[in-house]
Request: fold
Amino acid sequence: MIKLLLLLFSLVFFNIPDICALQILVSGGKPVTANNYYSTYEPSYLTDGTVNTCWLNPSYSGWATVDLQQPVKISQVTFYDLVSSGSSTLSLYIDNNFIETKTLSLSGGVITPFIFDVPDITGQYVKMNITNSASWVEGHEFEIYSTTVPEPATCIMFFLGIFLNFIRKKGE
Ligand SMILES: [Ca+2]
Reply:
């Protein structure tokens, strides 16, 4: 019995909070600056919440920076890129510190997410530098996520709710 209680205790206080961790989108509606844009395809379309709108840069390279308006612990960055056909190279910077470069071959006309897993780096300005784009630089959405780990008590209530619901359904 004591062993069981110890197991439950360790699960609740060490593992369950990680299971409960939530990915929160922190870039929605945040201001974006870019080195250039074409016509009405403004950088603000990178954080408007839909991949159907885009920032278009009349060049084969360019950059865009999201201002999160306060320092945030960042866990993941996803940039939705589109080229006519060929590859594109994306380099991620947080507060001017280089994080990672990715090159992907894209199918022509298909919006492709470039996903960067970030080891919880705190920063405010998130920059994507795009080079060697097979066609004009075209970004459809620039998503920045933060991981929030709730208090153990919140996790216990969450799993207790699932458990009680399970018992209730079994009783029906
Ligand atoms: Ca968009």
